[in-house]
Write a structure and sequence with these properties.
The chain is built from 8 helices and no strands. With 137 residues, it is an all-alpha fold. It folds into 2 domains: 50 residues, no CATH class; 76 residues, AhpD-like (Up-down Bundle).
Length: 137
């Protein structure tokens, strides 16, 4: 069996991705990488470089809109995407979205992804809002 390794090709994009990850998500890129490296070495660096170092840098959308799109698309996936919804709602709020905007985005997916998916995503949002309120108290 041949061992395959995911390697990053652009250190500057990887560094840019790490900084963007920390800015957008408010958590450590190193911790994120360590959590995935235990099972898939290099996978987190690929995400940091391509998603945060490349896709997040594209012109045309501000960070708030970008995060709201991510919340919506991850919610549409359903339960498989709910962990990402949980991670990106605070990122959307940090980027300037309001709770009402997050709820409206999740409300809108009911018509493309179905009511059960929207209800599940709204329940995830409520748990995130509750956790943020507890942290603030």
């Amino acid at each position: 069996m041949v061992q395959q390794t995911i390697t990053t090709t652009d250190t500057s994009r990887l560094e840019l991705g790490r900084r963007m990850f920390e800015q957008a998500l408010g958590s450590s890129a190193a911790d994120f990488a360590a959590s995935l490296d235990a099972v898939a070495p290099g996978f987190a660096d690929m995400i940091l470089e391509t998603e945060f170092g490349n896709a997040y840098q594209r012109p045309g959308l501000d960070l708030k809109t970008r995060e709201l799109v991510i919340v919506a698309t991850c919610a549409v996936i359903g339960t498989a995407g709910f962990d990402a919804v949980k991670m990106h709602i605070p990122a959307a709020l940090r980027a300037g979205a309001t709770r009402a905007e997050v709820v409206e985005v999740l409300f809108q997916i009911a018509f493309s992804a179905g009511l059960p998916t929207a209800i599940g995503a709204l329940q995830v949002a409520k748990s995130v809002f509750d956790a943020l309120d507890q942290q603030a108290a």
